[in-house]
Amino acid sequence: MGKLFGTNGVRGFANQDMNAELALRLGRSLGSYLKKGDTVLVGRDTRTSGPMLVAALSAGLQGAGVHVHDAGEVTTPALQYAVKTSKGRYAAGAVVTASHNPPEFNGIKFIDPDGTEMRSDKEDAIEAVFFGDRFRSVEWSEIGQGHYQPGVNAAYVEAILGKVDAEAIRRAKLTVVLDTSNGAGGHTAPYLLRKLGVHVITLNAQPDGTFPGHPSEPTPENVKDLVVATRAFGAHLGVVQDGDADRCVFVDEKGGYVDGNRTLALMAGFVVGQKHGGLVVTPVSSSGIVEEHVKARGGSVAYTRVGAPVVARYMLDHGAVVGGEENGGIIWPEFQHCRDASMTLAKVLELLATSGKPFSALLAELPSAAAVKKKVECPNDRKQKALDAFAKAHAKDRVDTTDGVKVYVAEGWVLVRPSGTEPIFRVYAESKTHEQAEALATKSLAEIREIIRTA
Ligand code: MG
Fold this sequence. Notes:
Blueprint: E1 10-13, H1 20-33, E2 39-44, H2 50-63, E3 67-73, H3 76-84, E4 92-96, E5 105-111, H4 120-131, E6 146-148, H5 152-161, H6 166-172, E7 175-179, H7 189-195, E8 199-203, H8 224-232, E9 237-241, E10 248-251, E11 257-258, H9 260-275, E12 279-283, H10 288-296, E13 300-304, H11 308-318, E14 322-324, E15 330-332, E16 336-339, H12 341-355, H13 359-364, E17 370-377, H14 383-393, E18 398-400, E19 405-409, E20 412-418, E21 424-431, H15 434-454
Parallel strand pairs: 2-3, 2-4, 3-6, 7-8, 7-9, 12-13, 12-14
Antiparallel strand pairs: 1-5, 4-5, 9-10, 10-11, 14-15, 15-16, 17-21, 18-19, 19-20, 20-21
The protein binds magnesium ion.
Magnesium ion is lined by residues 99-100, 242, 244, 246-247.
């Protein structure tokens, strides 16, 4: 049996591996897994292949006797919120998106009735239907019906207003430069900011699946216009959302790019401070500044394997107050258990408004750290032995085996993670400065090579 679902659903090149036939089969698989008469809420980002894939996916669902409500162009968190708050009306959600990938890609991600990314055991069951051709084909009289479901983006925006101190944000009279990367965020974030009384200047806010502005991954390379505009308009901050608006990255009022680890640390500290403690959840690959800052504010940190759905599930099971990844994906459990760029933006504005400090000054209060990423070759059949030996060699240190092996040493920490697809280890090293991180990585790479050689 093959493997269909990755960390974020099924992805591929539009009209090649991610084609209408695959979408149809995925629709038939999900539909056959669900009960006859169930309803699925379907939505998509702005990619040009989106309408075709939604049509095929919907046909597959309907042929299995499942009704389809089509939300149209929506952000991923807006669709997740609609599913979560449907009071059981939706047995599942499905988003056609390839997130931050280039425009020629697309993907399909399934959502559980509670609004989180679908549990992997359910995905496995759907895969079994897919690969076993165990599709349900209903009688003509039972074919699923469908209609357009407007208002998903608007309801999401309204709901965010109730989850932040909107009055404080309005009083602060903030100016924000917002870049929605020609993605689905153009349908939500500008309206949210306007309702929060923010003077908003938009870049690339027109939804356009060819992504004419810049690639939709929020890297330093792709925020150059945002940096220029933030400075030129004298804005309090600039923000860029990725293509499906679950992640966002900020620039401060001076135009400085804010690494996602620093945003996560800042916001986790803010929430823990507001709540006088609480649990923060993040993958083992995140910067130690998150733990340092959260602990200083009276909270605690739990680490998970890498992957936002894993973080979200852990947060749900352990009652965390906030969590997220180093890539700009922050999860706000009082709102919903998924990464959410507009909710993140609203909370950052709340922090700015209630602290009265410039964004750069708030960031300057964080501990400093620098991380480097390397890789080292290791045959797949020797990976486990090498990982065990690496952990054993550091028996005296704090060792975390949640995902690969992470060891805390005097200089900082080192994480060795096996790649799932290549015969390599990914090696992360973090220390106080970039030079120290490089030195730690060099030392650790030599140690790991020797361990692999003798494993
Ligand atoms: Mg995304």
